[in-house]
Amino acid sequence: MQRRHVLALALAGAGALAATGAAAATQERGRRFIADMTWIELRAAVAAGATVALVPTGGSEENGPHMAIGKHNAIVRYCADAIAARLGNALIAPVLPYVPEGGFDPPTGNMALPGTLGLSEAAFAAVLRDIARSLSLAGFTLICFLGDHGQSQGVQQSVAEALTREWQAKRVRVASLARYYSANGEEDWLLAHGFSAAEIGQHAGLLDTAELMAAAPGSVREALLSPATWSRGPSGVDGDPTRATAAIGTALLELKIAAAVAEIRSLLAGRG
Predict the structure, then answer these.
(1) Model pTM?
(2) How many CB atoms within 10 Å of residue 222?
(3) CA-CA distance, 86 to 75, in Å (whole number)?
(4) What is the DSSP track for 139-183?
(5) In 3-state terms, the chain is what percent helix, strand and coil (to 5)?
(6) How far apart are CA 4 and CA 9, in angstroms?
(7) How far apart are CA 111 and CA 257, in angstroms?
(8) What is the rounded distance in angstroms from the CA atom of residue 55 to the CA atom of residue 95?
(9) Is the link from the previous residue into 217 a cis peptide, with omega within 30 of 0?
(10) Which of 60, 64, 135, 138 is least surrounded, with the fewest CB atoms within 10 Å of its CB?
(11) Distance of alpha carbon 83 from its chain centroid, rounded?
(12) Range 198-206 average pLDDT
């Protein structure tokens, strides 16, 4: 056989292996995201032991001139996928993209700038309750709210505590994974690596921007990271995203993922 034919066969084989690998990766993701499964597949997965449900809540809000409105949704989906992969017994509900964002009349918080889509706290709580009820009917015994947005945290905690009390007899627990959002060590990591609190910021600063660069690079307009684009007038930026990189974001997201995995394992062990 001529060498060019051998090479062609080798390349074809490599291509087939790559395609098989990509298909396997897609199939594996499909086994984690509930929306990509059939109801038969879901029922079988729960019966086989996948009794932890992750309910990712993101947010649709202004994020300065340099980041897409779906920032929180992209980040929490990325993290939920990694969390479920590490646990091995968790499935992921569709990302809830609407959360409390501030008042409507007059507009406050993120509602003050165009593009933000908010819910009242009462509406958000009602949606969380019904999602949890639906998941409990499917056989999940630990339902975890994974919130990537600050104003979601209190409501999630209240709903989780109320449902856990209500369902104590049937041994279904609901938890809001607070460590993922507020006890993950991200700010300490950044300070230890020479970044200032002013850079880190509270919204659309270095921390947020770096996370999104890692989770969904196309959602960051890197040409607009210059202070000239956000330092004058209302911009939605609290912090300084100038030095953000995907490498920093990857390190930060790892902290959030590890914090959530540890908290879920603690809950499963009865220590949470």
Answers:
(1) 0.88
(2) 13
(3) 17
(4) T-SEEEEEE-SGGGHHHHHHHHHHHHHHTGGGT-EEEE-HHHHHS
(5) 55, 10, 30
(6) 9
(7) 29
(8) 7
(9) no
(10) 138
(11) 10
(12) 95
Q: Quick one: tokens of 173?
A: 């627990």
How many residues in the chain?
A: 272
The phi, psi pair for 257, rounded to 5°, reads -65, -45
Q: What is the pLDDT of residues 160-190, one digit of tens each?
A: 999 999 999 999 999 999 999 999 999 999 9
CA separation for the pair 177, 79 (Å, rounded): 13
Query: pLDDT (tens digit, 9 = 90+) per residue, 28-42?
Result: 555 799 999 999 999
Q: What residue type is 34 in one-letter code?
A: I
State the Rg of the chain over Cα: 21
| Distance of alpha carbon 26 from the chain centroid | 19
Alpha carbons 118 and 237: distance in angstroms, whole number: 18
To which residue do tokens 């609290």 refer?
238
Q: Where are the domains of the chain?
A: 29-268
**Sequence-separated (6 or more) residues with CB below 8 Å from residue 5:** none
What is the percentage of the chain residues whose pLDDT exceeds 70?
A: 88
User: Which pLDDT value is given to residue 136?
Assistant: 98
DSSP state of 234: -
Pick one of 3.40.50.2000, 3.40.50.300, 3.30.1450.10, 3.40.50.10310 as the CATH number of 29-268. Answer: 3.40.50.10310
For the record, the structure tokens of 195 come out as: 């970044």
Q: Tell me the C-alpha distance between 257 and 51, whole Å.
A: 19
**72-81, 94-103, 109-118, 263-272: segment of lowest average pLDDT:** 263-272
Q: What pLDDT score does 28 carry?
A: 55
Contact between 43 and 214 under an 8 Å Cβ cutoff? The reply is no
In the numeric block, which tokens belong to residue 83? 């969390």
